[in-house]
Amino acid sequence: MNLSKTLIAVALVSIALPAVAQTYPYSYPTYPSYPTVSSCPTLYYNLYVGQSDRSTQGQVSALQQFLSTQGYYQPVTGYFGAMTRANVAQFQRAQSVYPITGGVGPLTRAAIARVCGAVVPPVPPPQPTGSVSITGVSGPNSLTVGQSGTWQVSTNAPQGTPISLSVRWGDEVQYPYPASSAAQSAYVSQQNTFTHSYQTAGTYTITFTASDQYGRSNSSSVTVQVSGAATTVGFTATPTQGAAPLYVNFGINTTTGNDMNTLSIDFGDGQTGKPNTIYCFAAPCNPAMTAQHTYTTNGTYTAKLLRDNNYCQPGMYCTLMYREPTVLGVVVITVTSQ
């Protein structure tokens, strides 16, 4: 009898539990939602290294969020540092925005708007009255090839307005190294002192441009005469003319302490090579280094002996630090038909 009562009680409980569960459903915890920054920002400041959200009304974070959505590794920190500058430079290359500065100016803002499909022009913030100007440029008006020159730039702007300076050295098109040349010869900075050297003789026009975050700018240009410097490295070729295919021996006499690892040869036909060192035990060794190359097509070729500045050891991640190589010697090779 007691067993029957127990079975009846268990059956009643099994029937009642689902009903209770339907009457009092389980409440899952709720989590707060965080606001997100638009991936298509409306930017009206000139943004560059050293700026933060405080001085740009949050536009550094907006820029970083945009870069992140474009596939770049870009934490949103609200501070414009080296990583943001590198990502902006990559974006400029991808969108063919030149010069590649790593800073955000009118051209880069237009590219961001173009990527986002924006059609409404940004509304600029209130700006102080006055103008931006370059009041003076001082520096050398003559140099020799490979010699560094330093220029001081004086600027003027309304009180409290930060100014950025960009410079074009005038030799950008002479080197087939677009990424390296852009980084060295055209950049934006808040400094007022700039240093540069030229690797080819000639007359160059240097243009400095001052601008502020409101889009106001002013430019000033100076010229510098660069004369050829006597080379301390002998660079020869034998023969210098003949019928194709022309086998040429190059000789390098370097007794001035040049690092052999930094020397290379641009043969002038789209190919390069490293010279071989001749080891000897009685000075002088003449030539100290040699190289061989075969020219297979008719034409006139200018072979150049180059010294790679900021030499990068094999396997090291420093190739982006390269400056343009220094030309130490030139030989003209003429290849004719049979």
Question: Summed up, what is this model?
Answer:
This protein has 338 residues and is of the alpha+beta class.
How would you describe the overall organization of this protein?
- The chain has 338 residues and is α+β, with helices and mostly antiparallel strands.
- The protein contains 6 helices and 17 strands.
- The protein has 3 domains: 29-124, PGBD-like superfamily/PGBD (Muramoyl-pentapeptide Carboxypeptidase, domain 1), CATH 1.10.101.10; 133-227, Immunoglobulins (Immunoglobulin-like, Sandwich); 234-336, Immunoglobulin-like (Sandwich), CATH 2.60.40.10.
- Strand 12 (263-266) and strand 13 form a beta hairpin.
- The protein starts with a helix and ends with a strand.
- It is 20% helix and 31% strand.
- Residues 17-38, 119-123 and 174-189 have low confidence and may be disordered.
Order of helices and strands: HHHHHEEEEHEEEEEEEEEEEEE
The CA-CA distance between the termini, in Å, is: 123 Å
- The CATH topology of the largest domain is what? Immunoglobulin-like
Alpha-carbon Rg, integer: 33 Å
Full CATH superfamily name of the largest domain? Immunoglobulins
Mean pLDDT: 75
Any guess at the CATH architecture of the largest domain? Sandwich
Q: Largest sheet, order of strands side by side?
A: 2-8-7-4-5
Assess the beta-strand content as a share of residues: 25-35%
- Name of the top-level CATH class of the largest domain: Mainly Beta
Number of domains: 3
- Main structural class: alpha+beta
Q: Helix amount, in percent?
A: 10-25%
What form results from the Cα inertia axes? elongated
Number of H/I helices: 6
Most strands sheet: 5 strands, mixed
Low-confidence stretches: 17-38, 119-123, 174-189
Task: Give the strand tally.
Answer: 17
